[in-house]
Amino acid sequence: MLLKIDWTKLLMGEEDWPFLLEIAVRTFAMYLIILIGLRLLGKRGVGQLSVFELVVIISLGSAAGDPMFYKEVGMLIPVVIFTIIVSSYRLTTYLSAKSSDFDALVEGKATYIIRDGEFSIGNFSKEGLAYDEFFSELRQYSISHLGQVETAIIETSGSISVYFYPDEKVRYGLPILPDLFGNAIVKITKAGIYACSFCGNVENLEAADECLCKRCDRESWVKAIDSKRVK
């Protein structure tokens, strides 16, 4: 016995063919409403959006979804939702401009992750960053070790701003290249300049079975390098 397939029901479900035209009209209308809403939000790119702005974008997308597909949802409902969301956003940005405390509450604050070629340990932990992820970001700036970096800041948008030492002031630092960072050791078999793999503190170590970092009390070390940044 051959399986009989109801292609009309498979393709259209419980709706009829004319509903496709209605979907097209609804989708185009919601596209225009989203376009207007985003235009009112401003010109920043997705990579520059704060957490609050991403919530607004997601809310706009959620409000636009149902009217595109469900005929029982009227077009006036998403317009009201969009108006409330955009108005709330405008009010929030106005209050943020008037009050630095309110702005910090909504947007957060820029966070120093590296100072003077070493990790700001408390801030790094607070941001919940993984070393691999952060090192990957730094390598996009042609950074091979932390001794090239004077300051690194995570902005409220999540992007990273980096300020470099001039070549003549580059110091020994923790390597962030995978092959070098992966060679962390505990036992120092040869005296030399090493960087703590946890905080980036650089010390001149003598051969020893165990050396604790003077800054964070960790015992894992990587051979420090002082190469100049390739521009």
Write a concise keyword list for the protein shown above:
231 residues; alpha+beta; 2 domains; CRO Repressor; 3-stranded antiparallel β-sheet
- Span between N and C termini? 72 Å
Q: Uncertain regions: pLDDT < 50 for 5+ in a row? A: none
| Major sheet summary line | 4 strands, antiparallel
CATH superfamily of the largest domain: bsu07140 like domains
CATH third-level topology of the largest domain = CRO Repressor
Helix content: 40-55%
Strand order, sheet with most strands = 2-1-3-4
> Mean pLDDT across all residues, rounded?
81
- Counted by DSSP, the helix tally is 8
Number of strands: 7
β-strand amount:
5-15%
Structural class designation: alpha+beta
Please give the CATH architecture of the largest domain: 2-Layer Sandwich
Could you give a short description of this structure?
The chain has 8 helices and 7 strands. With about 230 residues, the protein is an alpha+beta fold.
Structural notes for this entry:
- The chain has helices at about 5-10, 20-40, 50-70, 75-100, 100-105, 120-125, 130-140, 180, and strands at about 110-115, 120, 150-155, 160-165, 190-195, 200-205, 220-225.
- The protein has a four-stranded antiparallel β-sheet with strand order 2-1-3-4.
- β3 and β4 form a beta hairpin.
- It is elongated and about 80 Å long.
- Helix content is about 45%, strand content about 15%.
- About 20% of the residues are buried.
- The protein is of the alpha+beta class.
- α3 runs antiparallel to α4 (about 75-100) and α4 (about 75-100) packs across α5 (about 100-105).
- The protein has two domains: about 15-105, no CATH class; about 110-225, CRO Repressor (2-Layer Sandwich).
